[in-house]
Specification:
The chain is of the alpha+beta class. It has 19 helices and 34 strands. Strands 3-4-5-7-6 form a 5-stranded mixed beta barrel. Strands 8-9-10-12-11 form a 5-stranded mixed barrel. A hairpin with a 5-residue loop joins β30 and β31. The radius of gyration is 31 Å and the shape is globular.
């Protein structure tokens, strides 16, 4: 009690010494609330012209106001209204609500109060921000919540660390990162219950160079089945758990009546689904037959039937919001992270053989030249006659395997495809035949093989039917002036064409920049190369020169396919863009069905919100697609490294894929997976780095290592945790055959160019060639 009285007297004393003209509490509060910059003690003093003893009195006033719960202190010691957010502060984007990004303060120290969720009001070009980004933003209260106006995108702060716990001599624990771009291990200051060998999530503690790691989550054994996929899921922040509400809604939606009487009945047709042998879902099926119209002699009619996902996933539902948040399914060798819950993605929306399914049917009529004469769309009910693997369909058509559906289903499909091929050959799309790796696992999740997928006619047949349906969907919507989520692929930029020209010059191949560049331009270039040894890497370089495809409501055409209008329609189970195209077709062509009972939204066509946010949604799902591609590629690299770990010390056939001053990168022929050959292992002589020729050349020996060169290498290291490989020349000094390399502690890594490297610029490099 005495201490309380003493504090009151002290506070009163401080108040009494405040000079005349000193700002009141209300004036200080008003300044803090209206300031366009962080309002710290210095800014407040400057605003009211306070000096000397007045600043001391201001400090006392601010403390009083904080004690009274009027204000709080945030980052950079700036004041803000208690329970509110600083006027200008650093936020981290943590979620997306429909199309609005949600951010929270990076630092929130108000005890007993959850961090506020601010709606990010983007202006100008959208798509620059995504989940995980940090922004400096101006904040304000709006209605019942807070909004943030981005001022500047900030560099990423220290992110959560994903790695494996390792133990050094003396029992000290270190975190070995799973990201091969991070080349240093981090000492662990707080391991919790984690032990050596655990795959963990950790947060950085302290500041460089004394950063340590504190383990926050233990994910398990990094070599256990599914761990490689788990690493990618956590590293890229891929949503992989459905909420109870979404799961419940999926169960309710899957029980909706088909309304067969209001759908076009196609159950009498021998429609077949042709998919990969390991496909988890089946969202498309095809049928074709000669056209019985005498006016279209030699022509065919075809149906591309796609799962009617828009009937089950309706605008504004919890399912819809979750699908938009994910953007697409993510496919790993051992599991799928689906865009929709399994009740839909692998059950009711999967076109299973012998079961009635709701479908959106694209009806096509082709003339004898392969041109699509007409198209129409209908909501249908189908019963797939068979689900065939590509290999089985191909074997049947080649006469290598008997199949009852050969005559009624497959032969007409192949005959109609011959017409589609005519049209494709005429428009000359980009023809880059690059290998795709396939990881085969046994029932226990262990690797059986890693091989390049065989490219069959059956693959190209399905591709051409899907492309025809996608074009028809885009044109059908354009005919009704309805919104379209286009799949856009713009022509290569001049900068990339210049880089390609310089690259081709190293092979003495000319590439004129003045010409109008079309896909056929690159096809002719590939034809000129023939079957030369350098063909694979030149095709890879041509691929790198292309722009990245994306989704948008404005049509810029599809350069790679040589098409003026193109939209994705054929995979609504796994791509949100296709779902929007289905909804647009339902609205444009009056395909709505009776409204369901219960809490499920009435409409399955585009909502007003869908139409208003097409641009923003296109940017979001394009980002999610890139995220999925990177996660899938990294996971396959980890599986390849795990497969090769049993072959450390063996000689492998390899091809050089890149050259830098510190060494060259090579990939194992037929398997993929890039690995480094450090220049330090090439011998004691000096090496020139020929930047223009993309080569390393020995000064004394003349040995030259250049992109595209095939050679035998010894596999020195295979690290499944981060997917990296390391090679050596066959005659290099042997090293310990283990993927766990001798540790080099932070601080002992030598920096700068290797001592046996001398860099030569592009001019000298060209002269040397």
């Amino acid at each position: 009690m005495a201490s309380t009285e003493k504090k009151k007297k002290s506070d009163s004393a401080r108040t009494k010494v405040r000079p005349a003209g000193f700002p009141t509490r209300e004036q200080v509060m008003d300044f803090i609330a209206t300031s366009d910059q962080p309002a710290g003690k210095r800014e407040i003093a400057k605003a009211f012209g306070l000096k000397g003893q007045e600043k001391i009195a201001l400090k006392a006033l601010l403390k009083d106001m904080a004690d009274e719960g009027l204000i709080d202190i945030g980052p950079a010691r700036a004041f803000h209204k208690m329970g509110g957010v600083p006027k200008v502060t650093v936020l981290r984007i943590v979620d997306v609500d429909d199309t609005t990004l949600i951010a929270t303060p990076e630092r929130w120290e108000a005890e007993g109060q959850p961090a506020p969720r601010l709606r990010v009001m983007e202006r100008g070009k959208r798509g620059a921000l995504t989940i995980g980004d940090r922004i400096l933003a101006r904040t304000e209260e709006a209605g019942r919540g807070w909004v943030a106006h981005p001022m500047k995108k900030l560099a990423k702060a220290s992110e959560e660390l994903l790695g494996v716990v390792e133990e050094a001599d003396g029992g000290k624990l270190w975190l070995r990162p799973v990201d091969k771009r991070i080349r240093r291990d981090t000492p662990i200051s707080d391991a919790g219950t984690a032990k050596k060998g655990d795959l963990v999530l950790a947060e950085p503690v302290g500041r460089p160079p004394r950063t340590t790691a504190r383990v926050t989550d233990i994910l398990g054994d990094p070599f256990a089945p599914r761990s490689f996929s788990l690493i990618a899921i956590h590293k890229h922040g891929i949503p992989h758990v459905f909420s109870e509400r979404v799961e419940e809604e999926a169960v309710t939606a899957s029980s909706l009546a088909l309304h067969e009487e209001k759908r076009e009945d196609l159950r009498h047709l021998p429609i077949v689904a042709i998919d990969p042998v390991d496909a988890r879902d089946h969202d498309d099926a095809v049928w074709a037959a000669p056209d019985d119209d005498p006016a279209n002699e030699g022509g065919y009619k075809a149906i591309v039937a796609i799962a009617d996902v828009s009937y089950y996933v309706r605008p504004g539902s919890a399912l819809d919001r979750e699908a938009r948040k994910r953007g697409n399914s993510v496919y790993f060798p051992d599991l799928v992270v689906p865009m929709l819950p399994h009740q839909l993605s692998s059950d009711m929306c999967s076109l299973r053989a012998g079961e009635d399914r709701a479908a959106m049917a694209c009806h096509l009529v082709l003339d004898a030249a392969g041109k699509v004469k007409s198209w129409r769309f209908s909501r249908a009910v189908i019963r797939v006659a068979a689900v065939l693997a590509y290999e089985d369909a191909q074997a049947a058509i080649d006469g290598e395997k008997p199949l009852d559906l050969l005559e009624p289903a497959l032969k007409p499909l192949w005959a109609c495809w011959a017409l589609l091929r005519k049209a494709r050959d005429k428009r000359e799309p980009l023809a880059l035949d690059l290998p795709e790796r396939r990881v085969v696992l046994d029932e226990y999740g262990k690797i059986v093989s890693v091989a390049v997928r065989e490219r069959l006619d059956a693959h190209m047949l399905i591709e051409d039917y899907m492309i025809a349906a996608n074009v028809a969907a885009a044109k059908a919507l354009e005919a009704k002036k309805a919104p379209v989520m286009y799949r856009v692929h713009e022509p290569p930029s001049r900068d990339k064409l210049v880089a390609l020209k310089d690259y081709l010059a190293t092979f003495d191949i000319e590439f004129a920049l003045g010409q109008v560049v079309k896909p056929a331009t690159f096809n002719r270039l590939i034809a000129r190369i023939g079957e030369a040894e350098e063909k694979p890497q030149i095709m890879e370089q041509i691929l790198r020169s292309q722009t990245q495809a994306y989704y948008a409501p404005s049509n810029m055409g599809h350069f790679g396919l040589a098409l003026g209008s193109y939209a994705h329609f054929t995979s609504p189970i796994r791509r949100y863009a296709d779902l929007l195209v289905h909804r647009a077709l339902v609205g444009a062509y009056g395909l709505e069905l009776p409204a369901p009972k219960g809490d499920i939204p009435d409409r399955s066509s585009l909502s007003g919100e869908d139409m208003e946010n097409m641009g923003r949604v296109g940017e979001m799902i394009s980002q999610h697609e890139r995220r999925a591609m990177e996660a899938e590629r990294e996971t396959i690299d980890r599986y390849v490294a795990a497969f090769l770990a049993a072959h450390v010390g063996d000689l492998v056939e390899a091809r050089i894929t890149g050259v830098q001053s510190f060494g060259f990168f090579a990939t194992v022929e037929g398997l993929g997976g890039d690995g480094l050959v450090p220049v330090s292992t090439l011998g004691d002589e000096r090496f020139f780095f020929d930047e223009a020729g993309r080569a390393l050349e020995g000064v004394e020996s003349g040995d030259r290592y250049t992109v595209g060169q095939r050679l035998q290498l010894r596999l020195a290291e295979a690290d499944p945790i981060n997917g990296s490989l390391r090679f050596e020349l066959p005659d290099a000094l042997p090293q310990r055959p283990s993927f766990k390399k001798d540790r080099v502690r932070p601080g002992s890594v030598r920096r700068g160019r290797p001592t046996n490297i001398r860099h030569i610029g592009s001019k000298r490099g060209k002269h040397r060639r």
